[in-house]
Amino acid sequence: MRSVLFATAAAVAVLAAGAASAADKIKIGHLADYTGATSDVGKPYGQGVADALAYLNAQGGIAGGPVEFETIDYSYKAPDAIATYKKWVDAGVVAIQGWGTADTEALVPMVSKDQIPYFSASYSGHLTDPAGKGTHGSKPAPYNFFYGPSYSDACRALVQWAAADAKAKNIAQPKFVHMGDNHPYPNAPKAACAEYAKEQGFQVLEPIQYSLKPGDFKAQCLSLKESGANYAFLANTGGSTISLLKSCETVGVDTQFMGNVWGMDENAMKAAGAAADGMVFVVGAADWKSDAPGMKLVRDISKVSDASGSAYRPVHYMRGICSVYYMKDAMEAAAKAGGVTGPNIKSAMEAMREHVPAGLDGVCIPSTWTPEDHRGTTKVFIYQASVQADAQEIKKIGEADIPRKPEWLGW
Amino acid sequence: MAINASALVPCGQFKTSYRKDTTIFPTPVARNFAIAAVLLLCLLPLRFGEFELLGRYELNLLIQIGYYGIAALGLNILVGFTGQISLGHAAFFGFGAFASAWLNNSWGVPVFWAIPLAGLLTTLVGLLFGIPAARIKGLYLAIATFAAQFILEDFFARADWFTGGSAGSLAGGFSLFGYDVDGDRGYFYVVLAYVVVMFLLGTNLLRSRDGRAFIAVRDHYLSAEVMGINLTKYRVLSFGVSAFYAGIGGALFGHYLGYVSSEAFTILLSIQFLGMIIIGGMGSVMGTLLGTAFMVLLPEVTQALVSTARDFVPGADESLAFIKQAAIGLAIVLFLIFEPDGLAHRWKMIKAYWKLYPFSY
């Protein structure tokens, strides 16, 4: 009994000490999906965020002191994300590194009210309209930021690539189809991209639905085969895309697949094997094999969770790092402007013009945020997977610069 | 022989009339105890300057126990008192949450009224999905209610007009007489009021003719029918009552979180509701509350233990999610083996022990 008492007393003492020393630290919440439907890409991205924050702390922290951050795995359940958010607000976090589209979009009114900058891993076009001036019914999302091209812009870039590809192959009226789960994340670019594909002369088919949870998708592949689609945009994450590619290989589909930014990476390519050969997808930063000068810092950060330095990091890892470093730069600017508070971080973010965080040249795409437009970057890297018997690789096959049309804001 | 009767405390409880046997509380002491407990709960959210009795986190747990407890009581009326089974309780819970948000968002019904109205709407849905109960029972009924779970879940993800589709819908805050109940401290009282009212209603229901009919159906449906109880009516009614409780609980949940999404109401939650009443005690009103508290607090306690252990055991962090789920499963198995009558029974044993202390025999 006495030992129990001691243990309790010790635990209380530790908690109290923690609370006292945490009083003046910058607090950051980190929401990650390590066990849910999108965990296949959630793990490398979350690792990138966590490593970058830990690395920054080892280097003296942000704005003059180490930051306190908590990583919460919410299993891609939006209600859990909201509950976690409420807990964090109570604990006094000043900024959040978030994850999914469903939860980020649901939190928009709350983070606006609480003035907490929210750096999501959701690149939904709905989050790019800070003032609510978009013409497609977008609601104001003043405190939402993300690093990378929006899902809609990424899909537009793929449509551009497909249009050029169809022209080269002499396909008269190519058919385009959107494939994804009935979930806010795959749905985000659905309407915007379909509209753009129509403009580009595609015949847009009825979307085909497949679950975010990996499964047997032969039925969907048969529908795809019957539809005769030439280009299919896969809006889910890697895990379910692997299953889809394999199912479609079995069924004998010869559609050209195009994956969004979370739809394909090196792990997914390995798992899908020959089925992934030729798939085109979007990448939002340098890849691990890049020789950009900024990769030195990335490799140092990677050593936080892999001391040997031998781990291969999928493309999402780099975007996680970029997201943290933009936040860091904004916090340091905010500290100079009178204090690391939500509104100050927001104005610092909105003052960035073609900004690349120091040390990450060639890794993060130069990004610009303004008080009217939160489309950080509209530049899209297009990669292709190549799977041969002896070698698997991803290589960059193009770049697109999507115009910042005002009518595409928030869409 | 003029012994003053009031001077004697009877050794044991003797009920000399039927009325005394069916009081809400078994003894006056128990009643005073319950009133004192509610008053004590009323004090918990208070804050005196910097000092607060309970942090927001603990309050959040109590609120959870409240809305889940209400829904679990509904399931206990269906399973524990009427002897039926439902694997679709989470879907009814979700329907209540969506209905309340919908009434508030689309029709401008104040949240104060939307919550009970959502309960009534959910009752209708419950009655509808309870119809198979008129014909089937046991495992077959379990599968029929399982269908309700899936039909409603899919409905939530698709019915844009009602639920906002896969994106979910925002649920407004609770307000009373133009005063916004903002934050957990205020909402705690809303949930507490509902818990008190719903649990008193539940207890009273079971003292009524209908409640006794439920129990008769459970104990021996053939005898019940012979005694003139309309089996179909009571089986379906039990589903309706159960759904009403689920709807109220769900509506409270929705307005508490401020956001309702179909992801929250999966079959797992249905099973958890069953877990709550099995652990708490089937056919016990108070046991329902105990079981809910157990199920809500168990993951938190595991989390606290794992967080403490992470300094000593490498990798404890990563397995946290697994340990939490495994602990719930293990708890149910252990309860089924060692305490099939649930926490309510254990509580009675503890009371009996102290009543006779130190001369227990």
Structure description:
The complex is a heterodimer of chains A (411) and B (361). Chain A is 41% helix and 15% strand. Chain B is mainly alpha-helical and 361 residues long. Helix content of chain B is 70%, strand content 4%. Chain B is built from 15 helices and six strands. In chain B, the strands form three sheets. Chain B has a two-stranded antiparallel ribbon with strand order 1-2. A two-stranded antiparallel ribbon of chain B has the order 3-6. In chain B, a hairpin with a 2-residue loop joins strand 4 and strand 5. In chain B, helix 5 runs antiparallel to helix 11. Chain B starts with 17 loop residues before the first helix and ends in a 5-residue tail after the last helix. The relative contact order of chain B is 0.14. The model of chain B has no long low-confidence stretch (mean pLDDT 87). The chains are: A alpha/beta (411), B mainly alpha (361). Chains A and B meet through helix 3 and helix 4 of A and helix 3 and strand 6 of B.
N- to C-terminal distance of chain B: 32 Å
Order of adjacent strands in the largest pleated sheet of chain B = 1-2
SSE string of chain B, helices as H and strands as E = HHEEHHHHHEEEHHHHEHHHH
Derived structural class of chain B: mainly alpha
Q: Radius of gyration of chain B in whole Å, from Cα?
A: 22 Å
Q: What characteristics describe this protein?
A:
heterodimer, A: 411 residues, alpha/beta, 8-stranded mixed beta sheet, 5-stranded parallel beta sheet, globular, B: mainly alpha, two-stranded antiparallel sheet, 15 helices
